[in-house]
Each structure stands twice: as structure tokens, then as C-alpha cells.
């Protein structure tokens, strides 16, 4: 796999910083199901809470469905015992 290099002049014309572009890309890939939360926050260079705040700013929410909820309940049951 090749690394992606974006020239500074392109970022300047787009009026976006490298950091902001990485966050935008990470949020987009998470929203599309291409990256997990852990992978996306690593790409963005953010901790969990900061990444979730950035997602919220962009109108993207946690992919948390019934199966994840059931798994969390099972985990909590093991922790309580």
C-alpha cells in the first residue's frame, strides 16, 4: 500500500489544515463503516472523547446497535459477578 501525500498548496487552496483534513477523513471513514472507532480516532490523532466531539460537530453519531448493546450487557454481567 502506498502512502498518501497531499501538497501544501492544495490544502491552502482548500483552506484546510492537515490536522482538520485527517479528522474529516477519519470521521467520514468511520461513518461509512470503513474504519472502527479505534482505527478512526488513531487516524485523527485524537482521544475517544475528542473524536466523539468532532463526530458530533459533523453530525455523525456512534454506530451502536442492538448487538453492541447486548454484548455490553453481557460484559457488565461478567464484571458484576
Present the secondary structure layout.
Layout: H1 8-14, H2 18-31, H3 37-44, H4 48-57, H5 66-80
Helix pairs in contact: 2-3
Description:
With 81 residues, this protein is mostly helical. It has one domain (8-80). 67% of the residues lie in helices and 0% in strands. It has helices at 8-14, 18-31, 37-44, 48-57, 66-80.
Short synopsis of the structure:
The chain is 67% helix and 0% strand. It has helices at 8-14, 18-31, 37-44, 48-57, 66-80. Helix 2 (18-31) runs antiparallel to helix 3 (37-44).
Structural class: mainly alpha
- Indicate the low-confidence ranges by residue numbers: none
Indicate the radius of gyration in whole angstroms: 16 Å
Number of H- or I-type helical stretches:
5
Give the terminus-to-terminus CA distance: 46 Å
Shape: elongated
Integer count of domains: 1
Give average pLDDT, whole number: 91
Number of extended strands = 0
| Main sheet properties | none
- Approximately how much beta-strand content do the residues carry? under 5%
How much helical structure, as a percent, in the residues?
55-70%
Order of secondary-structure elements: HHHHH
